[in-house]
Design brief:
By secondary structure, the chain is α/β, with parallel strands linked by helices. It contains 11 helices and 11 strands.
């Protein structure tokens, strides 16, 4: 899959833990995502034991009062958020049935091995793992397209991951501008990094968007984003570990429409009259005679004006024809053309 060759952005609905540990709900999320028009649904493949250890004090406990997940240990949070591995095939199959791509973010080697058994078509590397060079190398060796969120990564760290991915077999890489805050604010999103990142690393770019609403995503398309990722839920009111910054189905459908519109509107650099404009040319300004004139009368500011429609001489000739004589009688409302002017008098 070459993201650059598409004529619209590749839009991903991130399920994360919004299934609330119900396979039925997970499948409903697939259905709603497909109905909203997204191209893909993304899972996360880990267990609490593969991503951290069972410890609930010190740095393993979230005590920041401003953190969305305050009061949880990392272990308990990931127990709530993980998607059971035995559900993956059912979700992959449902996505295929609904005509959208299903793929996942692996968090360790065992997850990569498991996803390879499911023939996962794309791999995502999360922001928090974008410094895990061994994991990036393992994923790159699958030869599958890779999408990497760049949250928190320094320029040198991004260089490390890009080099690692390309040197180990990844030929289709997309870097997503990401602010690893939940939710993120537009002010800190820095979308202008997107075209710079594209030029610097010579790869596809996009946005993993944790802001509320669709504005940042639409703007990113105008800056060259070819991949957009947003967290997705059936209803924020139902709760869930990521529900607070996830999109609902109607919102996702709007995002898909507006991002596609933005992509279509980009077009190419052009200063030509567009096909759809040609019927409007007649309504431009041009020079018209606005009073009856006799042969030999001179054109003045009173009997000539720049008005619509646009069938006469262009307004730029206004001063050039002032004071010139007309060669025959002219009725009010006649467009001014060179053949009715004694040009050399």
């Amino acid at each position: 899959m070459n993201f650059q060759q598409r004529n619209k952005p590749f839009i991903i609905a991130e399920m994360s833990g919004n299934h609330n540990h119900s396979l039925e709900r997970a499948l409903q999320i697939v259905d709603a995502a497909a109905e909203s028009g997204v191209d893909a649904l993304k899972l996360q493949t880990y267990t609490a034991d593969t991503i951290t250890i069972d410890k609930s004090d010190g740095e393993f406990f979230i005590s920041d009062p401003n953190n969305l997940w305050k009061g949880e240990s990392l272990y308990s949070l990931y127990q709530k958020a993980y998607t059971p591995w035995e559900w993956h095939k059912a979700i992959f199959d449902r996505c295929k049935e609904k005509g959208i791509v299903c793929f996942s973010t692996p968090f360790d080697f065992t997850a990569v091995d498991f996803l390879e058994e499911l023939d996962c078509p794309i791999y995502k590397i999360a922001s928090f793992e974008n410094i895990d060079i061994p994991l990036i190398k393992r994923v790159a060796k699958t030869g599958k397209p890779m999408i990497v969120s760049t949250g928190m990564a320094s320029l040198s760290e991004l260089d490390d991951l890009v080099r690692t991915a390309k040197e180990n077999g990844c030929q289709d890489l997309a870097l997503l501008k990401c602010t690893s805050s939940y939710p993120a604010t537009p002010k800190g999103t820095n979308l202008l990094t997107i075209p710079h990142m594209k030029e610097l690393f010579k790869c596809n770019v996009g946005l993993s968007d944790h802001t509320l609403g669709i504005g940042a995503a639409v703007a990113s398309v105008a800056l060259g984003a070819t991949v957009i990722e947003k967290h997705f839920t059936l209803s924020r009111a139902d709760g869930g570990v990521d529900a607070a910054f996830s999109m609902e189905p109607a919102e996702m459908a709007q995002l898909v429409r507006e991002c596609n519109t933005a992509c279509e509107a980009l077009g190419e650099v052009s200063y030509e009259i567009q096909e759809q404009e040609k019927k409007s040319v007649v309504f431009r300004r041009s020079l018209y005679i606005v009073e009856d004139m006799k042969a030999g009368d001179r054109i003045t500011e009173k009997n000539m004006r720049s008005i619509r429609p646009g069938l006469g001489l262009k307004p730029k000739y206004y001063n050039a024809v002032l004071g010139k004589k007309v060669v025959h009688d002219i009725k009010k409302g006649t467009k001014l053309t060179w053949d009715i002017i004694e040009t050399f008098i």
